[in-house]
Design a protein that fits this description.
Layout: E1 3-8, H1 15-28, E2 35-40, H2 43-52, E3 59-62, H3 79-82, E4 88-91, H4 94-98, H5 104-116, E5 120-125, H6 129-133, H7 137-148, E6 161-164, H8 182-200, H9 202-207, E7 210-213, H10 221-225, E8 232-235, H11 242-261
Parallel strand pairs: 1-2, 1-8, 2-3, 3-4, 4-5, 5-6, 6-7, 7-8
Helix pairs in contact: 1-2, 7-8
The structure holds phosphoenolpyruvate.
């Protein structure tokens, strides 16, 4: 399986700045067959960046979309309208769940819409700080995972990417965000694989990529990538710094090569 390094630019950069930043990345990123590099700019920049990017080096993801394909939905953009521009779609990000009140129902409809339109959904799941404190992590992960996948056929589950993003470790809004220890992430990954195995079988569980996201930077990326179950990283803040993002790609390649030798 490839290692995925995905940058979520969130609501940063103008269209012009996005283009300049992508240009810088394209100059620096080397293309590796076993590392999939994806960036997710704002919706506004997707059209121009899709023409600018070299998809062998950097593919694009949308940060959001509406689950219906066409119709009277003022102000919305559908995945059917975006499908020629992107290869991936982020779904269920905690900022969408908690700032924009997206429900599990919205999220499962989006996962299904992405697959229906031939894109790979990146389903984000993760517990909040208080859920963690009250020992609810396992229940939250199970509900968000199975809730998000409930409109997907068992055969299609491994076409989705699951990103474990504990809300307490995401740096964007919580200035006091903590850094998840590799042990925290290892336990969550083990649980997610177990739920996938019990629900969809061993093969699907093993074939579904699991990513980690939450304050990942070049100094801690390796500690997560070394985890047996880790198939990549979803990166917010550090993906806005070209040297950080490209260093993380090189770290991923080093870990991949080292694993291949064992
Ligand atoms: C994110 O929002 O998906 C994320 C992982 O952000 P950060 O890396 O900034 O914590």
């Amino acid at each position: 399986m490839k290692t995925y390094i995905i940058g979520n630019w969130k609501m940063n950069f103008t269209v012009g700045e996005s283009s300049l930043f992508l240009h810088k990345l394209l100059q620096r990123v080397r293309s590796y067959r076993d590392i999939e590099v994806v960036v997710s700019p704002s919706l506004m920049a997707l059209q121009s960046l899709s023409l600018q990017t070299d998809r062998r080096k950097i593919k694009l993801a949308t940060q959001n979309f509406y689950h219906r394909d066409f119709g009277a939905f003022t102000g919305e953009v559908s995945i059917a309208q975006l499908r020629s521009l992107v290869d991936y779609a982020i779904v269920g990000h905690s900022e969408r769940r908690y700032i924009f009140n997206e429900s599990d129902k919205d999220i499962r409809a989006k996962v299904a819409a992405a697959l229906r339109n031939g894109l790979t959904p990146i389903l984000c799941i993760g517990e909040t700080d208080s859920e963690r404190t009250f020992g609810e992590t396992a229940d939250v992960l199970r509900d968000q995972l199975l809730g998000g996948l409930s409109e997907v056929s068992a055969e299609e589950v491994s076409k989705c990417i699951i990103a474990y993003e504990p809300v307490w470790a995401i740096s964007g809004h919580d200035k006091a965000a903590k850094v998840a220890s590799p042990l925290d992430v290892k336990d969550a990954f083990a649980l997610i694989r177990k739920i996938l195995k019990e629900t969809y079988g061993k093969e699907t569980a093993e074939d579904t990529p699991l990513l980690f996201g939450g304050s990942v930077k070049s100094i801690n990326a390796e500690s997560y990538l070394l985890l047996e179950d880790c198939n990549g990283l979803l990166i917010g803040g550090a993906s806005l710094i070209a040297s950080e993002f490209t260093d993380i790609i090189e770290i991923a390649k080093r870990v991949k090569d080292a694993n291949a030798q064992h």
